[in-house]
Amino acid sequence: MQPEPDARGQDRQTVILVRGHMPGRILILDDNMTRRITLAARLSGAFYDILVASSEGEAHAIIDKARPGVILVADELVCQPAAAFIRALRADPEHRSTTIFVLTAPGGQNGRADLLMAGADEVLPRSEPDEVFRARLRSHERSREMVRTLQMGGDEGQMPGLSEAASQFQGKIAVTLMLPDADQAEAWRAAIGPVEGLQFALAREAEPALPHATERSGLVLLGVLPGAEHRAFRMLAERSAQPDGDEDELLILAPEADSATVIAGYEAGAGAVMTGPFDPAEIRARLIRLRDRLIRRRGLHRALKDGLIAAVTDPLTGLHNRRYALPQLARLSAQALVAEQELAVLVLDLDHFKQVNDAHGHGVGDLALRSMAQTLQDNLRPGDLIARIGGEEFLVALPQTELAAARKIAARLCRAVRETPVLLPGPQQRLRLTVSVGLAMAPPTDRAPEDLIAAADKALYAAKGRGRDQVALLGCRRKPTRRDFAERVGATPPAAPPTGTQMRFLI
């Protein structure tokens, strides 16, 4: 491989590294050496790592090794059309987030829609001013950074449910046309024509949401016409101020716009700004690109949300797990202290569960746990906390519940489990279960959740020792006083001493 001169006239190899403090690596693919050097020189002041390739094969080798975040592709490649190179790259899931710009000759309009449909994020002339080019680049960098954040540093293929998100997406995405001139907006809608998966409406029809759109956030097509720039951006600001308005994907059509207007569009959050003539095919292609980006982002949001839910959910029963229960129990205990109310804590254990597994197998054991979980849920109040905290052990917290009511609820749970047999596979096969319950009343102190559970667990062992299928209580029961609250929050306690404390240990 022959050395080629860099932007400063020095001989360097085809891979040029311009190191700087700004993160990001850009690959330039162009078989014209002059254009490569010129573009590398333009970008060198932006503190990116610049790599260049003179052929598709060389580009693929650099991509596999250096994994650039941005690829700039010349539209006039000798060996392979730019669209074919982009399709091959997009076929690899690892490069789905890579930003791809196609650089064309000044004024070139032919084939732009095809390049966008092939997977290009942007098609722009080489003569574009540096400040506009960098504004486009920053916009796509922000989008890529958002994706990386949602991925939490992992690969999309490793996030459960995400790989199917786009293919399983059904319904239409709203496209809101926003122009100061309603007649012009209607004319644009007619000229663009239908696009699969998209539903168009004028801004006046689109608030608060389109009737058949699946979600509030969607696509916005904003027209910025000469002389009406301020009004257009004011409409966009009003839209962004609405709930979820900042989650839209924005396409700005700004024919004949100057550099300042284009930069303002990207700073306003645009995914793309079109400055050329009105081209329905290009508009449709750009809307499809933004639609796919929106669907992908929604899928990442759902995967992240599902992952957070899974982290605090027991997969067998669907109840919350110990990780969720402990901080919630601490919260309920603190609320009870402030409100001077009582809190009851129950620990329930399925009786003879090992015998169930030994006699019927673990499949029936799992069925028994699911049945018990459902029975407990059906017999608790909406504000009560229930969680599976161990193998066959469950936790229930009863806020704003005094001892008498707590004992009734615990007895009701025992009775409900006893009277709800588990239906086993096979004709007329039923498995009857019982449960033992330990009950503890939380005193109005800074008692840790683990201590409350330990007290209820101690009572549970007493219930087991007495023959199971019953409730046992271990408690330090005292009506909370204002002194407790005052000492808790650091206030001065009242002068009068609190009433005497009556301790009840019931086992």
From TrEMBL:
EC number of this enzyme: 2.7.7.65
Any one GO biological process: negative regulation of bacterial-type flagellum-dependent cell motility
Catalysed conversion reaction: 2 GTP = 3',3'-c-di-GMP + 2 diphosphate
Annotated ranges, domain Response regulatory: 25-141
Entry protein name: diguanylate cyclase
Stored Gene3D superfamilies: 3.30.70.270, 3.40.50.2300
Pfam family, one: GGDEF
Gene Ontology terms, MF aspect: diguanylate cyclase activity
GO cellular component: plasma membrane
All copies of domain GGDEF, residue ranges: 341-476
CDD domains named in the record: GGDEF
InterPro entries, alphabetized: CheY-like_superfamily, Diguanylate_Cyclase, GGDEF_dom, Nucleotide_cyclase, Rev_trsase/Diguanyl_cyclase, Sig_transdc_resp-reg_receiver
